[in-house]
Design a protein that fits this description.
mainly alpha; 5 helices; about 0% strand; Ninjurin; cell adhesion; membrane
Length: about 130
């Protein structure tokens, strides 16, 4: 056998050379940095939409979607900070941190879908289509 039979596979992973808490913290920090980058991009996009004014066809829709995305990103950011501060090697924390991680994953998926809609509705006057005259 690759490990003693009295250890479960999860206990074996945590006792290996890989420091699971350090790995989890680095992964969470990377998630947080990506969340900040998307947050700043959405704020910039919101500023552009506001500058274009209410005459823009999807003005209300895009502003609502960006606002929704920003709100989700704030919640995800708070959860990421909570997860990063937890110690995954302590068994007492594992269930709670796993649940928070699952909730954060769902939030990030919702942020992704919301930003797809923002991109679709935001194409009319920004980016490539702004320079093309049909």
């Amino acid at each position: 056998p690759s490990h003693p039979s009295h250890l479960s596979s999860s206990q074996f992973v945590f006792s290996s050379n890989l420091n699971m808490n350090l790995y989890a913290t680095k992964k969470t920090a990377a998630e947080g940095m990506l969340d900040i980058a998307l947050f700043l991009a959405n704020i910039t996009h919101m500023k552009t939409v506001i500058e274009q004014g209410a005459g823009y066809r999807y003005y209300a829709a895009v502003l609502t979607l960006i606002s929704f995305s920003l709100a989700l990103q704030i919640v995800a950011g708070v959860l990421i900070i909570i997860i990063a501060r937890g110690d995954i090697t302590e068994e007492a924390n594992q269930t709670r941190l796993n649940s928070l991680n699952n909730i954060t994953t769902i939030l990030i998926f919702l942020i992704f879908v919301t930003n797809l809609f923002i991109s679709v509705f935001g194409m009319e006057r920004t980016g490539l289509f702004a320079r093309m005259h049909f």
